[in-house]
């Protein structure tokens, strides 16, 4: 076989390693310490009885000798129904005005939340003034400048209340607390700016679910999915969940690990998740149509690169490099794809890109899927207790998706939030499908069909 792989069960949770500046700490972290070795394509040798008994205290073992991940609490609900919900909206009415000298600050805290994301319905500030949204320590800071229309409306005394959907989202802050600060270039001791109607207002906050809330949401989605019996695609984890932290492959399979860097977590409208990935050397990203349809969707989507665990099976994750989605360039419901671009492309170029395999895959071809299941830090699904060789492979290269023979099926483990992930050939390390359905087998749209629609845009 082409590579040798060492695997350990994942235990990574979102304990963020703070960087010295806003956006990211981008180091790869600590080298994985493998717990066992398996030959790709064949079962690992069984451990001695005493060793197996000792190992059993820590984790179970799946077919093929690969360790089983502990229950992760990620959504096992159907991927194709829609985006994975991971947060809630909270209505607030916080006004940062010009009454006091210097800066004005509001703090939004939701204990246990994975992230906090504020929405402004008014951003009426004078030139030179600006707002920052940060974590309490100031290790992640995002700047928001004034909206010229709000400034003019405020000065004329004619600013209207924001309509539903109007206003502007700020970039999320990782953790359960966001600090919003109004920075003023010129003091206003006479209160003239306040009298002119200038100020900043936060009307709502999106905050991540707590662990208990997410578990309840996952259970609800799973019940809903199981009631959708038309196609039976209610399960995405096939057998034991063998998806692992991406960093577990850093030494065991460095090519797969490198490819995973080009895969991003998508936070959509503040409360929903999918996965997307860089395609080619230019500013192009792919995800599912059921994740993103219009440029308006893209504008309200955060694209998180390098949101990965620092150590295989560890607790810490690196702070993601976050950029906004920009424009939808092509989309199709039947092939369930959306091609889009991002803002600040230069910030994410260093994470590399994926390429397409334009020929149709064949049955038995080994594959792996870098993904963000349930919005978790990056993981790779490669092992499979449903495939004879212990590595997931193409089960049917002519599987029915939204259309006849439109998909490729496989038993790689996925979950809600994995929608839009690349299915990559282990032979060529090129993308053969765009994951979008659960069901065991799970399936992705044939990338050769998608390529024919988008090749002129690449």
Overview of this protein structure:
- The protein has 458 residues and is mostly beta strands.
- The chain contains seven helices and 28 strands.
- Strands 14-23-22-26-27-28-25-24 form an eight-stranded antiparallel β-sheet.
- It starts with a strand and ends with a helix.
- Mean pLDDT is 79; it is low at 1-10, 18-81, 152-165 and 227-235.
Features of the shown structure:
458 residues; mainly beta; eight-stranded antiparallel beta sheet; six-stranded antiparallel beta barrel; 7 helices; 28 strands; disordered N terminus
Short structural summary:
By secondary structure, the chain is mostly beta strands. It has seven helices and 28 strands. The protein is about 15% helix and about 30% strand.
How are the elements arranged and paired?
Layout: E1 4-6, E2 15-17, E3 37-39, H1 49-56, E4 84-85, E5 87-96, E6 104-109, E7 115-124, E8 130-134, E9 141-145, H2 148-156, E10 168-169, E11 173-174, E12 177-183, H3 192-195, E13 199-208, H4 211-227, E14 244-245, H5 254-260, E15 263-268, E16 272-278, E17 285-287, H6 295-299, E18 301-305, E19 316-318, E20 321-332, E21 337-342, E22 367-371, E23 379-381, E24 394-399, E25 407-410, E26 422-425, E27 431-437, E28 442-446, H7 447-454
Parallel strand pairs: 2-19
Antiparallel strand pairs: 1-3, 4-16, 5-13, 6-12, 7-10, 7-11, 7-13, 8-9, 8-12, 14-23, 15-16, 15-18, 16-17, 17-21, 18-20, 20-21, 22-23, 22-26, 24-25, 25-28, 26-27, 27-28
């Amino acid at each position: 076989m082409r590579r040798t792989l060492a695997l350990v069960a994942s235990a990574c949770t979102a304990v963020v390693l703070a960087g010295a500046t806003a956006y990211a700490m981008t180091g790869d972290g600590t080298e994985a310490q493998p717990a066992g070795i398996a030959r790709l394509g064949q079962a690992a040798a069984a451990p001695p009885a005493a060793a197996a008994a000792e190992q059993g205290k820590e984790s179970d073992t799946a077919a093929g000798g690969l360790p089983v991940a502990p229950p992760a609490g990620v959504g096992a609900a159907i991927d194709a129904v829609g985006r994975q919900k991971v947060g809630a909206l909270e209505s607030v009415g916080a006004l940062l005005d010009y009454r006091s000298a210097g800066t004005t600050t509001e703090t939004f805290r939701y204990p246990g939340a994975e992230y906090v994301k504020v929405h402004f319905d008014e951003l009426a500030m004078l030139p030179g003034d600006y707002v920052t949204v940060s974590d309490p320590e100031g290790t992640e800071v995002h700047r928001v400048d004034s909206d010229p229309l709000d400034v003019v409306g405020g000065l004329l005394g004619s600013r209207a209340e924001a309509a539903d959907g109007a206003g502007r989202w700020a970039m999320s802050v990782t953790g359960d607390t966001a600090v919003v600060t109004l920075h003023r270039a010129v003091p206003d001791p006479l209160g003239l700016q306040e009298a002119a109607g200038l100020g900043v207002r936060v009307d709502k906050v999106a905050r991540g679910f707590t662990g208990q809330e997410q578990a309840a949401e996952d259970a609800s989605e799973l019940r809903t999915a199981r009631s959708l019996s038309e196609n039976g695609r209610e399960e995405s984890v096939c057998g034991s969940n063998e998806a692992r932290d991406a960093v577990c492959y850093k030494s065991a399979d460095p090519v797969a690990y490198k490819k995973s860097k080009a895969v991003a977590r998508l936070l959509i409208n503040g409360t929903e998740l999918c996965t997307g990935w860089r395609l080619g050397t230019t500013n192009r990203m792919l995800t599912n149509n059921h994740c993103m349809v219009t440029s308006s969707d893209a504008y309200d989507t955060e694209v998180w690169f390098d949101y990965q665990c620092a150590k295989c099976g560890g607790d810490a994750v690196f702070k993601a490099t976050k950029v906004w989605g920009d424009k939808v360039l092509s989309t199709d419901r039947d092939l369930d794809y959306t091609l889009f671009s991002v803002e600040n492309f230069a910030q994410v170029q260093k994470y590399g890109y994926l390429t397409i395999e334009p020929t149709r895959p064949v049955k038995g071809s080994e594959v792996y899927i870098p993904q963000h299941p349930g919005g978790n830090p990056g993981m790779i699904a490669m092992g499979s207790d449903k495939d004879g060789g212990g590595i997931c492979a193409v089960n049917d290269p002519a599987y029915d998706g939204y259309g006849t023979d439109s998909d490729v099926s496989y038993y790689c483990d996925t979950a809600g939030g994995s929608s839009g992930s690349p299915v990559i050939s282990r032979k060529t390390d090129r993308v053969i499908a765009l994951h979008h359905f659960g069901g065991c087998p799970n399936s992705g749209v044939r990338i050769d069909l998608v390529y024919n629609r988008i090749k002129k845009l690449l």
